[in-house]
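Holo prediction. Input below; ligand is TXE.
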Amino acid sequence: MARVQGIKDYQCFIGGRWRGAESGETFESVDPFLAKPWARIPKCDQRDVDAAVAAARKALEKGDWANMHPSQRGKLLHKLGDLILRDADHLAATEVQDNGKLYAEMRGQVGYIPQWYYYFGGLADKIEGAVVPIDKADMFTYTRHEPVGVVAAITAWNSPLLLLTWKLAAALAAGCTIVAKPSEFTSASTLEFARLVEEAGFPAGVFNVVTGFGAEVGEALTTHKGVDKIAFTGGENSGRHIARNAAQTFKRLTLELGGKSAQLVFPDTDIDNAVKGVVSGIFAATGQTCIAGSRLLVHESIHNEFLDKFTALAKTARMGDPMDMATQVGPVTTQPQYQRILSCIEMARNEGAECVMGGKAADRPECGDGWFIEPTVFSNVSNSMRIAQEEVFGPVLSVIRFREDEEAYDIANDTAYGLAAGVWTDNPRRMFTAAKRLRAGSIWTNTYRAVSYMAPFGGFKNSGIGRESGQEAILEYLETKCVWMSYGKDVPNPFVMR
Ligand code: TXE
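Structure of the complex:
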């Protein structure tokens, strides 16, 4: 796919209007492969956030959206899905120019995104309350599920539209209104996407995009009294800070904060399959994924064979321009992230881990000026090392040996995170035991990195709060109201509880 040449100017989308930031200021978005700016983005501040939240509140409380029948909401979601499909090539190329991930991966993701809008569009008119068979005489009691309100959707740079969609499709189906804030590193695709929301015919104010930095725009949103719920994907520290902000007005909260997921390889597995699965878990997307399988727990009896086969396959990975369909490992998205990965590699060496592959910035000619890191493997890692405990968010694998199954489960669980785990075995007893013993939101057996609009996704422990996708995700965007109606003739004793 072709890149945008020169610098493209973007505007934010507030209350159905395209405009610059109130301050008139902008900031640059940088292409990670070329290490050069390619887009100018409005630098919003508190004033823009106030305007966006006011527009979202207005749309929530009065007018076309507030009065729209859920079936009609579902139709709009469906239409939005169709438009995304129509423009998938363009949206995917925009994401690649912003985040440097492979076009092959982003095109696949964007092509799959419509499914969330179809699925949640179908759910919009099936949000049913219940009649409670109440234990009081002459009383009719029922529940209503109502939209939670104005949602601040704050996303990270690794998969901007997918992460937004996981929030937006459920929130729109529930009847909420949204102020989205994409990462300052990757704002462009969310702004391109907003054009499709407009074209689909959503009323003004239902979906707004403010762009800018976490400390300014993110802070303004997460402390705003007009915001009822925050749905966030990002780093653990930002998540902790946001949860503190949310507590001030008890905003509802969904957090997806990454992980340190383990891939457990048992001796009865098909080694060649497991090798492919572990490679895909850590080197696909250059390891910049919340579900990266960054710890390999391998049985000591197959340790050497596995590692030989693993490094042999990983060494064949083609690095280069992410727009090229043949490229398998692209650059790191941001310069701070590139520096962080290199410092994690240094840290692992200092802790005594043995680097058996990579371990440095890539200086291959095909990498140009991009922020590339060689796929890296550390063996002889102990689970107490920081390299085994901290999320690197890059192509760095830590290899740990185990002897007993129970030991493997204990090591896998010995982390502050709990997002995902991979299990490689042909033994059904191990499959079920691992699924029960591992404390993580997604367990993949003989597969890895599978997600679906139908399957709930989220983390245990420090990996987050709440679930996205699947039927239960809609509950994250609803409040339950209980309505009591007495049809008795007399009001009973007013001095006691009924
Ligand atoms: O994320 P941030 P960063 C992890 C990964 C990475 C680390 C830091 O380990 O190394 O996080 O990445 C907004 N109030 N993940 O610094 O800062 C910010 O503007 C409100 C895991 O890029 O958390 C952006 O829109 N918002 C993760 C979003 O938060 C704030 C994916 C994410 O940025 C804010 C990415 C504040 N005070 C990184 N501060 C995953 N779960 O997959 C920042 N933001």
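The two ends are 68 Å apart (CA to CA). That is the main takeaway for now.
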